[in-house]
């Protein structure tokens, strides 16, 4: 099983950042790689079990299911249902932790998944540096840090 872990410090309070990222359908609003997103079946975007279907700016199509959402912990966990990346059993968690010294946020994004062994290093780099760090960089640009 492959594991990815990326962390960053964002120069804004966790509750402000959480307000932007907690909406499971809001990826196009804050992640630069996402072109469009919708929640299937008209379910609320914060309902555990809802499925988001989205397109990347390169045209790739991905479907993900929300597995957990905690406003208390500023965290969400989701799985990939369909993706061109060649991953299986993919589960990821995005978590924000308040840093009281300077009113900043410690952001963590992690994932575990199965994939072909010869693609593991490539996928770990793509997900960690492209997806996760790309999202954190966009949040830092928007909120500071």
Give a short overview.
With 145 residues, the chain is of the alpha+beta class. The chain is built from three helices and seven strands. The relative contact order is 0.26.
Verbal overview:
The protein has 145 residues and is an alpha+beta fold. It has a single domain (2-143), classed as START domain (Alpha-D-Glucose-1,6-Bisphosphate, Chain A, domain 4), CATH 3.30.530.20. Helix content is 25%, strand content 44%. The chain has a seven-stranded antiparallel β-sheet with strand order 1-7-6-5-4-3-2. It is globular and about 45 Å long.
Offer a few descriptive terms.
alpha+beta; 145 residues; 3 helices; globular; Alpha-D-Glucose-1,6-Bisphosphate, Chain A, domain 4
Spell out the blueprint of helices and strands:
Blueprint: E1 2-10, H1 14-21, H2 27-30, E2 34-39, E3 51-56, E4 61-70, E5 75-82, E6 87-99, E7 104-115, H3 120-143
Antiparallel strand pairs: 1-7, 2-3, 3-4, 4-5, 5-6, 6-7
Radius of gyration: 15 Å
Report, as a whole number of angstroms, the end-to-end distance: 32 Å
Flag low-confidence runs.
none
* Class derived from helix and strand content: alpha+beta
What CATH architecture would you give?
A: 2-Layer Sandwich
Order of helices and strands: EHHEEEEEEH
CATH H level, superfamily name: START domain
* Main sheet: strands, sense, barrel: 7 strands, antiparallel
Calculate the mean pLDDT score and round it: 96
Q: How many domains would you count in the coordinates? A: 1
